[in-house]
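note to self: dont lose this again. the chain is below, predicted strucutre after it. 184 aa total, dont forget to put it in the shared folder this time
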Amino acid sequence: MLKERLISLSQYCLPQHTLSRVMGKLGNCEKNRWKNWGIARYIKHFNVDMSEALIEDPHEYACFNDFFIRHLKPDVRPMPTDLNAIACPVDGAISQYGHINAGQIIQAKGHQYTATQLLGGCVFQAEPFLDGRFMTLYLSPRDYHRIHMPVTGTLEGMVYIPGKLFSVQPATVNHIPKLFARNE
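---
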């Protein structure tokens, strides 16, 4: 518990956006020595299963960011055949799920959000969800980081919501109030 609190407190002190820009530049570095070292350490540390990747050889990625959003081999994640099953659009684990009661969402360790807060303060966008259900999917560092749409649909719009860049690992989610509503 103390370790989680210390991890969470450190999140407030970090220059989050500067670190993000630096890591972005490092992630795009195409110098073989640096990118091969970084990818190899990442695979080992997070136990990434490269047998699922379309390109299994880590040295074949142009940069770390290409490795991070690697493609999977066809049929590694088949669609369910059960018509009552729900296809998840991402790798990851369900960390929270439940009812949205009068627009209120109870998240990790009793942290409460409103649908409006999670949608950047837009009451109009939150309205259809006020008495619905929610699910939070956590993608760990080892997970495949692409999102798929398991049904036919059309993207009608996107909204950029500025904010912090807190880690979403369980330790910080449990200790930073309203993290998901505060994050970019």
